[in-house]
Design goal:
- This protein is mainly β.
- It has a single domain, classed as lipopolysaccharide transport protein A fold (Sandwich), CATH 2.60.450.10.
- Helix content is about 10%, strand content about 55%.
- Strands 1, 2, 3, 4, 5, 6, 7, 8, 9 and 10 form a 10-stranded antiparallel β-sheet that branches.
- It is globular, with a radius of gyration of 17 Å.
């Protein structure tokens, strides 16, 4: 029972962190958090929770879907304290993250809590309204409000592509 409660608290803590990772951060709210997947594995020894298969995490108008989501966390270290902090989150396969009129897609998404940084890699694309940016990777620094887009290094790389709609 203790392991189940700790896993549930870890998941809740993780979701609170996940839904703050959108660049505008205005999508947070008091709405309930919902995660659906085919399986969930929690490994206390490795401090991980893995959601596998048709992962769909939602809160309000924020959603993350992917094939697999792994959350890495650390314990607060206090005796009888079952709370945790998310260190990083890795989403793999058919990643799609949305919040309001922002949409990001890629093969992989990494979130680093300490740096408050999101990395979309593998044919990454992001839209805000009708504007779009595409590259092999998109890194967004949440606190700085800046992004960096890189082209792939392999042969046939299409470089960075941006479409800006004018009113």
């Amino acid at each position: 029972m203790k392991l189940f409660m700790r896993s549930s608290l870890v998941i809740l803590t993780f979701l609170c962190a996940v839904f703050t990772l959108h660049p505008t951060a205005v999508c947070l709210g008091a709405d309930p958090i919902s995660i659906k997947s085919d399986r969930m594995l929690s490994t206390e020894e490795k401090n991980t929770v893995v959601f596998i298969g048709h992962v769909d995490a939602r809160q309000g108008d924020t959603a993350i879907t992917c094939d697999e989501m792994t959350v890495y966390y650390k314990q607060n270290g206090k005796k009888d304290d079952t709370t945790s902090q998310v260190e990083k989150m890795i989403c793999k396969g058919n990643v799609q993250a949305t919040c309001g009129n922002w949409l990001g897609i890629s093969k992989r998404m990494d979130y680093y809590a300490a740096e408050r940084k999101i990395e979309l890699t593998g044919n990454a694309k992001a839209w805000k309204g009708q504007n779009m940016v595409q590259g092999e990777s998109i890194t967004h620094y949440l606190d700085e409000g800046r992004s960096e887009v890189k082209q792939g290094s392999g042969e046939g790389s299409e470089g960075v592509h941006v479409i800006i709609q004018q009113d």
